[in-house]
């Protein structure tokens, strides 16, 4: 019986993970929800302060949209679905950073 030959391989494998790309949840303005309701949703779901939730709501109202959360894609998709469940129009997009 002949011994199995070991191939002469000089190979380096990089096992480091690629950095997570940040994603954003964008809430868009709509003609249906009251501003006070949007503030309540941001406070209830995200736990934002009254001031921060109000600032985000004003961006939604005046600029047409606001970035309400940033993080890994899967988490942002969960947040966007939660915004839909509250009746808000939200999308997920790759962060411009």
Verbal overview:
The protein starts with 22 loop residues before the first strand and ends with a strand. The mean pLDDT is 89. The protein has one domain: Ribosomal protein L7/L12, C-terminal domain/Adaptor protein ClpS (Ribosomal Protein L30, Chain: A, 2-Layer Sandwich). The chain has helices at residues 35-46, 50-63, 73-85, and strands at residues 23-28, 65-71, 89-94. Helix 1 packs across helix 2. Strands 2-1-3 form a 3-stranded antiparallel β-sheet. The protein is α+β, with helices and mostly antiparallel strands. The chain has 3 helices and 3 strands; from the N terminus they run βααβαβ.
Whole-number average pLDDT?
Answer: 89
Question: How would a textbook summarize the main sheet?
Answer: 3 strands, antiparallel
Beta-strand percentage range:
15-25%
Provide the low-confidence segments as ranges: none
Distance between the termini: 61 Å
CATH structural class: Alpha Beta
Helix content: 40-55%
Remind me, CATH topology? Ribosomal Protein L30, Chain: A
Q: Give helix and strand order, one letter per element, not per position.
A: EHHEHE
Tell me the number of helical segments per DSSP (H or I, 4 or more residues long). 3
Query: Can you list the strand order of the major beta sheet?
Result: 2-1-3
Secondary-structure class: alpha+beta
Protein name: ATP-dependent Clp protease adapter protein ClpS
Function: Involved in the modulation of the specificity of the ClpAP-mediated ATP-dependent protein degradation.
InterPro entries: ClpS, ClpS_core, Ribosomal_bL12_C/ClpS-like
Subunit structure: Binds to the N-terminal domain of the chaperone ClpA.
